[in-house]
Amino acid sequence: MKDKAIGYLARCLKGLNRLESLKINISYCDKLTNKAIGVLSKSLISLKNLKSVCLTGACIKINAEGLRLFSENLQKVKGLKKLSLDLRENREIQNKGFEYLGQNIAKMSHLESLELCFMECDYMTLEKCIPNLGKSLSQLKSLVNLYINFANCDHTRDRIDFSGFFRKPDENFELKECINSFEKNDK
Length: 187
Prior knowledge:
disordered C terminus, globular, 5 helices, alpha/beta
């Protein structure tokens, strides 16, 4: 898939005013660029009924800038309740992309469900990324379901503790499901 195809898709999506859920798999689309991800995510802003977005794929040209554009645009989708982002094996995101994602997730106060998979993303230093993510998660007052997967990230040697970043229980925060997968999986 090329950027031009994503442009056509983005134009089509703008007209789907009743759309509630969108799943897109960009796995192995090696010609897809950051610009295309920006155009695609920008087309979602006008969809007033959109509640769920799932982006999956190890797209090798999407880097920190692409993740910035994607998350900046998605934080403007006011009805978004669920975000699932699976960028396993992406070696271009790195620490800066994760920082951008964290900054924009913090602005998605309406999110109820968040799934993040960065499995085998070897070029992120999680000891630097996790504090930013933890602070962002603490801003999500509506969050009920959380899934985070960093399995097989080479820079993750120790279990990382999120506990210091969450609000105290008396601050009316319920996290019904929290699965943190930091340990290496056996292959």
